[in-house]
Amino acid sequence: MSTPLITVGIPFYNNEETLLDAIRSIFAQTFQNWELILVDDGSTDGSLDIALSIDDSRVRVLPPDGKNKRLPARLNQISQAARGEFIARMDADDLSHPERLAKQLAFLDTHKEVDVVGTSMYILDRQMQPTCKIIAPERYEVIVQNRFKGVGMAHATVMARAKWFRQYRYNENNIRSEDFELWMSSISESMFSNISKLLYFCLGPFTYSISTYAMGKHSGAKAIWRYASSEIGKLRSAYYAGRYYAHIVVYTGCNFLGLREWLVRRRYQALTPEEYAEANDVIAVIRKTEVPIRRIK
């Protein structure tokens, strides 16, 4: 088997309704020198059966252990198992645009100083229809300028050099804001960038429970305290950490008033008619892409 240039890693947990389409979107790529690593996080539905049914030598399912170790642990597992020079992140309920891998690879090839590159993305509603977008900032200075409030990188969209992922491992105890801690722990020695083109389709966080949201903000506040205190002092760190807890109060209040989805959508931008049409065309291409499936005896 030839050595792949790109490893795409998809951890999954109870994603039987979306996993196959996520896999289809990798088979639909214009760049084909990839391997796909699938890792189960203790699913109790049919997700693992779907992963094991893929009949292509480029697809590897890491040996399942039946445990629910959560995302950071599985991402570290993928980076250790990857054979590619580059690693591309992806979530099991999302889709990659067919040009995603080609454009991110070309960017990293021509920008040797950049360690990690993300993309702008479409936001999908519960029916997996494009509904809005996030246009990611391209320049490093803009990406990190408000870093204590949030770094301008969409985690699931990123591609990085494999050696970078192995140098900066995820904190496996940070369950809901592992990406924010990753940026904070690496930011002083890394260069980030984004491609402004919409190259990713992300299922919108319209169904987050209050407890899930609160856990993420609490984890983010702890990361602020760990990494910001030495740079900006404890007083300013406490201010930024306090903002995270204030967000929990606002989110809870909006949930009580039935305004949660409105609050979430405020983060996004409207699609133009042309973008909406293009997104639907791309999704149609992905869903028509054939994935080789082993016959069940």
CATH H-level superfamily of the largest domain: Spore Coat Polysaccharide Biosynthesis Protein SpsA, Chain A
Q: Mind telling me the C-alpha Rg?
A: 19 Å
CATH top level assignment of the largest domain: Alpha Beta
Model regions low in confidence, pLDDT < 50 over at least 5 residues: none
Count of spatially separate domains: 2
In short:
This protein is an alpha/beta fold. It is 42% helix and 18% strand. The longest helix has 47 residues, at 210-256.
Helices and strands in order, then pairings?
Layout: E1 6-12, H1 19-27, E2 34-40, H2 47-52, E3 59-61, H3 71-81, E4 86-89, E5 95-96, H4 100-110, E6 116-124, E7 130-134, H5 140-144, E8 159-161, H6 162-167, H7 178-186, E9 192-203, H8 210-256, H9 260-265, H10 273-288
Parallel strand pairs: 1-2, 1-4, 2-3, 6-9
Antiparallel strand pairs: 4-8, 5-9, 6-7, 6-8
Helix pairs in contact: 7-8
